Each structure stands twice: as C-alpha cells, then as structure tokens.
Amino acid sequence: MDIQYIGENLLPGKLGQFFVILSFCTAVLSTIAYFFATRAGLSKDPLINQESASWKRIARLAYSLNLFAVVGIGSCLYYIIYNHLFEYNYAWAHSSKILPVYYIISSFWEGQEGSFWLWMFWQAVLGFVVLRRGKTWENSVMTTIMLSQAFIASMLLGVEIFGFRVGSSPFILLRDAMQGPIFQRGDYLSLVTDGNGLNPLLQNYWMVIHPPTLFLGFASMIVPFAYAIGGLWEKRYSDWIKPAMPWTLFAVMILGTGIIMGSFWAYEALNFGGFWAWDPVENASIIPWLTLIAAVHVMIAYKNTGHSYFTATFLVLISFVLVLYASFLTRSGILGETSVHAFTDLGMFWQLVFYVLVFLFLAIIMLVVRWKELPITRKDEETYSREFWLFIGALVLSIACLQILATTSVPVFNAMFGTEIAPPPNVIQHYNKWQVPFAVVIAFVSAFSQFLKYKNTDAKKFFISISVSLIMSVFITAAAVYVMNVYSNVMYIILTFASVFSILANARILGEAFKGKWKLAGSAIAHIGFALLLVGALVAAATNKVISINNTGIGFGDEFDKNNNPRENIILYKDEPVKMDRYTVTYLGDSTEGVNTYYRINYRVIDEKSGKEKENFTLYPNAQQNAKMRQIIASPDTRHYLFHDVYTHVSSVPLKDEDHEEHEGHSDDENYEKPVTYEVNVGDTVRFREGYILVKGINRNAKVQNIPLGERDIAIGLQLEVNSEGKIFPSEPVYLLKDGSKFDFGKKVDEKGLKLRFTNVFPDKDKLELMVYQKPKAEKDWVVLKAIEFPYINLFWGGTIIMVIGFILSIFRRNKEIK
Amino acid sequence: MKKSSIAGIVIIALAIGIIISTYADSSTYGSFTDAKESETELHVVGQLNKQKELHYNPQQDANYFAFYMKDNQGKECKVVFNGSKPQDFERSEQIVLTGKMIGNEFHASKILMKCPSKYTKDEVEVTEVSASTAKI
Fold it and tell me: Are A289 and A252 spatial neighbours (Cβ–Cβ below 8 Å)?
C-alpha cells in the first residue's frame, strides 16, 4: 500500500542525487579520456599522437561537467539544510532551526557525506588549476586526480550494486533512513518539527574553518602524487620534481595549518586540557604531513644533486596513500575503542579499503615496472654535503612516522590477525619516549645542514661557522631552561638546546637573506618556526600544571588515599573565595544565554607583602545543560597572557530544573528540608545547621499587613534572633487567631536559607510552637572546576604561524623556478 | 661500506625497536577476574550497571566517582575513578576502563565510553576522560 506523504519537498533531493551520479560518471569518463590522451601522447606514431588532442577535449568536457555536478551537489545539500527540509536525513541529523547561519555551514560537514563532498570539491578546484597551468603535465596528472575523484564520488552514491552497497548518499530521506511507526502516517512531517542539531562541541567558530582547511590539505596531497605517477608513467623521471615542488609545499602548508587549527580548537573548546593528545585521529592526519615534509627535503636534494631520487618519489607516493589510510582509519569505525572522535562505520569499510589498496598498488606497480630505468645514483654522498643530511633528516622523519603509525594501527592489526592487543595504558608517555629523541635529531639536522653546501663542504669552515651558533646556544639554552623551568629532565634540556641551536643557525641564514640572498628566507623562517613550535610544545606539555588541586574532601577509606592520586577538581561555593596556587578564585554566579550557561569565575592575585592586587580577571567557562538527560557539555575559557595561559573548565555543576517557577500544586515549602518543630519559651535557643535561634520575647501587638484585626482576634509576634557566624538577623513570625480560626505568617531569613513559623500556642503548657524550615545545603550554588596553567604556549602557536609564513615564501620561490 | 647501507641498517634496527616497544608498551583487554589475578594495569570492556547508584557527590569530594560495571563476562565490580563524573556517563552503552584492581575495587585511571549519539542510533560518539593530566 502506498502512503501519500504530505509536505515533502522532493525536488532538491532528486536533483542532488542526479548530480551525485553525474559527478561519478563524469569523473570516470574524464579519467578514461585523460588516460587515453596520455597514452596517445606517448605514442611515437604521429597518427595516434593526433588522437591525444581529441581525447583531451573529451576529458576536459567531462571534467567541466564534473565540476558543475560537484557544485550542484553542494548547492542542493546547502539548500536542504538551509531551508530546514527535515524530510532529508542529513538535514534532520545534523542541523536544527535554532542554528545560526555560520553553524549551518559546519553542520554541512559534520557528517561523513558532507566531509567527502568537501574533499571532492577541493579536488575539483585543484584539478582546475592543474588543467589551466599544468601544460604538458595536464593529461597524466589529471588521469590520477580524476581517478581519485571517481573514488570519492562513489562514496556518495548510495546505490546497491550486486547486493553490495556503494557509498552513502546525503540525499536519503528520513523515512528511508529510519524505521518508525510515524512513517506510516502521510503527515509525518508535521510531527518532525525540528532537527537534531549540531553536536554542541562543534558549535565553535573553529569548526567552521578547520574542516575546509584540513580537507584542502588532504585534497592537495593528490597533486604531488599525481605528478610522481605521471613522471614514472611518461618516463619523465626528473622533470616532475620542479612543477610538483610548489604543490608539495602548498599541501604541507595547508595541511599543517589545518592540523594546528584542530589542535587550537581542541585547546579552546574541548575540555581534555591540552593541545595534543596523540589520539589516533590526530595521528592519522599528522603522519602524511610528516612524510610529505620529508619528501620536500629529498626532492630539493634530488633537484640540486641528483641524489635520493627513489626516496623522494617513494615519500611523495606514500604520503597520499597515508592520507587515504587516515581516511580509512577515521571513517571505517575500526578505531572504535581507541579514539575519541572517529566516525562510525557507514557500511563503507571495504569500499574505503579498496580505495587505499588501489592507490597503494598503483604506486607499487609503477615503481616496480620502471625500477630498472629509475635515475638512482650508485655514487655515495659525501658526509659534509647538504644532500646527505637532507636524506638523513628525511629518514629520521620517516622513522618517526613509522613509530606513530605502528601504535596507531594496533586496531588494524587486531582486525587483521584476530589478536586483542590494547593500546598502551599511558599513550602519551609511549609516544613521547620515541618522539622527543626524533625531534632532537631533526632540530639538530635542520640547524647545521644549513651551513653545508651541496656536493662537498670544507669541514674546517663548516665547524667554524657552526661553532659560534653552538656556543651561543649553550648560554641561551642554560638561561631558557632555567626561566622555563624544564631543567629537571635531561631529555628536555637536550631538546631545548637543539631547538635553540636551530633557531640561531637559521636566524643567521635569515640574516644573509636580508643582505640580498632572498631565496634563503623561506626555509630559514620555516625552520625557525618549527624549532619554536618544538620548544613551545615541550614547555607547555612538560610544565603545564593543574592549579585546582583539591586539598579538602573527605577520604573514602585508606585504599583510596594510598594511591596518592592527584585530586584535580575543586569545588567552589558561590562567593566563597578559595586559594588556588597563587590565585584567589571566587565563583561569582552564572548567567544563561541561549543554551549555554556561563559561570563567572574571578581570579585575583594579591601580593602578599604589600597587599596590592596584581592581577584581576574573570573567566567565563560555559556548560550546556540538558536537564532531561541530566548531563552537561562543558567548554573551557582561557585567559591568554604573553607567556602563559590560565585555562579553566567546569567539570560538574548543579543541574538546573527545567522550570524554576512555582506552579500549582507545589508549595514554597518544597524548597526546604523537612521542618523541625520545637516547643519553646522566651529565653530558649534552638540550633540549626549554621548557628542558633534565640527566642527573645513576645510581641502582643503584632500587626499583619492588609488584615484588619477584630476585637476578639489575637495576633502575636514571636521575636527571634538568628545568630550565625557572628551575625544577627532579627525575625518575627506571627501567629493569628481570627474569627476562631488559626493562621500563621512565617518569616524568611534568606541569607541563611531559613523559614520560621510560629504555629501554635499552648497556654496550658506555657509553650509556643516554632517550626524551623531550612534549605538543603545544596541549594547554595557551586561549581566543580578544573584549572590548568599552560606556560609559554604562545611559542607553540607563534612557531606555527612563523612556519606557515616560511612555507608561503618557499612556495613563491619554487613557483618562480618553474618558469 | 656505503653510507646509505649503514643508514639502512640503522633504520631496520630502529624499526625492530619500534615494533618491540609497541608490543612491550601495549596492554591487554581483560576481565575483572584477569585484573584481580594479574594486578597489572589493563583494559576492561563492559557496561555500566544502571540499576545501581552512581556515586558522585562533589560537595563531599569533587574527585571521587564510583559506579558499578559489568564486564563482558558478566562479572560485576565496583569501579573508582578519581576525577569528576564524566559528562554523559549515564547514557554510556559501553565503557572501556584502563586501570588495575586494588582490593575489591577497580581503580580506573582512564574511562573511555561510547554513547549513542544524542539522537540517531546508527551514529556513535566516543568520549574519553583521564584521571590525571598527561605529561611528557
């Protein structure tokens, strides 16, 4: 039986699906056409050679259609999300009506399909540049790019072929994606009023800009790969390096920026308290970045001396394969139990494996087939030559990657061999044990190899020129480790020394650059940036300290205390200052804006001797409360200083009730604990949690507002004094007998959370009845907080920016060299 | 000998070192029974027992969180984590603990949990919390 669905707007989805299929078909067509254009171009037969041009025309046409289709998919999807067409699963799952426009953009790439689209889009744009500027390289390079384009397009297909589901379409309808009785109703859309919204953690401006940058980085890695394949295919073994050089630098620059943006987002918006966690997803993106950086160096070595051809080609090829491997790791769900932020399997596991394997085998087969013809030198490099150390630097980087790769791939080994190896219990220690020594070697090599010449260098001159920098570095390092407080660990001192040496050595090269050798500026600046980044990461990671150490708290038995675990969360009651490290920290209150509640946390530093206030700032860490699910999602706030950051997030807060207002059926008394009833007389005292109440006397002429007293009516006030913490609060609840009925008018002492009622008089016993209501203690607002001080973290961010500037300069230089 | 051959030998040596280190540092997945026997740090996978109370009272101690978990063999054990209660903990479908058994309590240094994504069933979010800040 067919159900007539009401109110669905099916056109954008149908159109979008059409574009998906069009993009796949045109990508395949373009690949084939470019393939034959290249083959025909290679032919010695002039007749076949002429065919190349017509193949190329077809290929270009197919490419243009592909670009059009890719833009079409994006437009349709954007239209669906922007107009809140919740009949589509993607819009329903990733957006909601209350999202501001710029977050609608991030919900676009929250899902796998959207992020594949982003990749496909960048790949198409990059293809356009190659098409316009590739000249003789266009045919072979575009063949590989369009092959990759076809693979990504297939990820969006969402069709079944021979019982095997290929891809996952972003245009699938909600009623097809989900099962539920409401879809039996034709008017189900009227019941689906809003989407699920964007994951709150992604509602951050960095999430608008980080994914496009990262995916541009990933996408641009295909270009050097395609050049390398093209070089092997067309037997233009040495030619490809020059035009591929700016592309390689571009990919390195963009991917590096994207990774650091992610790191900054994690630092600013997530509460894991750091900028790098060696999470598998982070590792997966940094591995190809490092291998491509290694590739850049050996490419330069080859260009200048003819050495390291194989290493250069291999590293360029493997870098892109590792990009694909990274996307397999993050998208196939294989990381499952080991990663914080991997996607789950959308049923594309084998499709992703296939994508990786095709490109891996393409690279291996090309290398094997051409092996004998490769321009590999049999000559050994001189020890005092730049090319030798460029090669060594590249090797060390590769081994560093191998180590990251080995541990990150543990879940893959488990899946392949059926083993059950768990990742190291202390992941960070495991990685740092290896990566710190590698960083030391790389920093050293990046310093002294700048003073080496290609081919051979006079050893004496070399040692003289580096000795000045070396000696200066010793002094600067000594000062630096003392100031930055990392002298307790030998490895830290060595790494600082290596980095300082690298900064000084490269600063000297930069000095030369200012004298006119402008060509040198790019690499010098990039290396200085990298060395600063290393020092910044080292110092911030090694000396960051939790300042919210909790010294109170009741023990939970000896077993628990024995561990002597750090107690890193501290509870702050409203308006009660707590001393935390050198700060006096006060929780001042909270305010709610939209879904976020901001907690005002004031930090003050008071000089102990003079009593003067040295620092005073307020941080606003926030938490999204969801009372229904009884959970919070916390985001930190950070005070940035030039030399350190103070980072704060709430770990736990009292959950707010959905509605705070009183409504029918609820009395005010519900806000209090069960009352205690006392029979008292003048002069008696009654204890409560924070003090005592003294019965001072009786006021026989009490008056009650708005109630006129008749002749027979009696109103008696009970004069009370609430004593607490040296303060006295007078209070006078009233007892009223009016027209023979009893009434009483309680009084509140809000400061102490008390309500006092004078409820009865027992003349026979000469006693008065007093009821004491007290608010439960928890009513007092509190937050549980964690605060960390990150020293010198700006070196890390600053180093990154300097490094990127260095890359930009290098791109300009290498781009000029093509012409 | 050629320098590149030396480099090659060094690489192979390092690669072997890396593989050994990866294996040596790695931990194992186990049950509470294994944890009790071995007394070393390991990973335990299981589910939160939602019938029993989760103990987190920040006013008493902001760094004590205790709960009951059933491992995959069905054995239940009290778990103690010294930190605040992870966000979203109640909704977790699966928990991976890193830690060791002390007495009859499992002391977790890290909790990694999988929650059903807020809304959809076919998507899963994973979050992780550590008891202490990591340092180099």
Answer: yes
